Amino acid sequence: MEMQQIRYFLAAAGELNFTRAAKKCNVSQPSLTRAIGLLEGELGGDLFRRERNLTHLTDLGKRMVPLLAKAIENADQAASLAKSIRTKKVVSLQLALPDAIPLEPIVPHLIELTKVFPDFDFKVQRGQLDDLTQRLRAGDIDILLGPKPETEWERYENWPLYQARFSLVFRADHPMAARDAIRVDDLNGISVLHRPYCGVSSQMCDDLVRRGIKLFPAPEFARDDDLMAYLSSSQSIALLPDTAHLRPVLTARRLDGPELGFQMHAITVSGRQRGAALSLFLTQLRAADWQMAAA
Question: What is the structure's pLDDT at 96?
Fold first, then answer.
């Protein structure tokens, strides 16, 4: 199976007309027809059904389109990556994470990219999840790392990475610090410091309320460092990701009951050309051992 055969097939599948497909591929129609015939021979069945002036994909043809399109995409990405490494040209990456999600688990993969691409230029954008998904759809962001978007869109491509877990965090001299785990009922009548930009912790608090736990109103903080400062000087409680850097006076405990957290995803948009950095970054993320991040 040759890549040119696949390209001719995809062109014909898109046009449903061999004459237009041949013109699009800048080859003669007999050459395109012959190449597709060889491909059909290798796959063991007809890819097209020809009825006079009408051309339709067979069931086999319909099944082959996404698989062979992905093969072409991977080949193009490999060629782009090889060229970028060979020519050492500047490559860029626009990465985004919601405000509440730490960058630490991702840093080693970014460092690897700087080793491959000496002129690697990347930007880490922050914001609320809804805003970031809109910027991803608009093309201002190459890849979004975070919870799977609640809004459905057929062009989202999602790859699950790891389970991001949250714990209850408080001062080491807090009465709850003496326990190995906190029961759900222990949270009745307390207040959990609120981060309005963190939809994840807000959803978890809402889930606790639905379970019958009465949470009292709590102060809101627009920045993690402000929340940490208040938490370190009071007897308050916060819901924070396990990867968060805690001050020495703070400690974390698991909740004995419903797991607090969410599934971390890498999210891109199908059909967009991926640069060399994004292609390699995705490969790294999908091949990584996330057990340490999920522990």
Answer: 93
Q: Among residues 247, 134, 244, which one has the least CA distance to residue 198?
A: 244
CA distance 113 to 195: 32
pLDDT of residue 144: 95
Return the structure tokens found at 291.
Answer: 């057990």
Q: Is the pTM of this model over 0.70?
A: no
pLDDT tens for 133-179 read: 999 999 899 999 988 887 788 889 999 998 888 888 999 999 888 88
Backbone torsions φ then ψ of 178, nearest 5 degrees: -75, -10
Query: What domains can you pick out in the chain, each with its CATH number?
Result: 3-86 (1.10.10.10), 89-162+263-294 (3.40.190.10), 165-260 (3.40.190.10)
Using CA atoms, how far residue 15 sits from 24, 43, 72, in Å, is 9, 21, 17
| Residue 222 backbone phi and psi in degrees, to 5 | -85, -10
The residue to which tokens 């007809």 are assigned = 46
CB 188 within 8 A of CB 214: yes
Residues 6+ apart with CB under 8 A from 29: 18, 19, 22
| Helix intervals (H) in the chain | 3-15, 18-25, 29-43, 59-87, 107-116, 129-138, 199-210, 224-232, 276-287, 291-294
DSSP state of 223: S
Tell me the Cα Rg of the chain.
26
Which pairs count as long-range contacts for 204-212, CB under 8 Å and 24+ apart, including other chains?
Answer: 204/166, 204/239, 204/260, 205/239, 207/258, 208/184, 211/184, 211/258
Q: In the structure encoding, which two tokens stand for residue 103, read together?
A: 């960058």
- Give the distance from CA 260 to its chain's centroid: 20
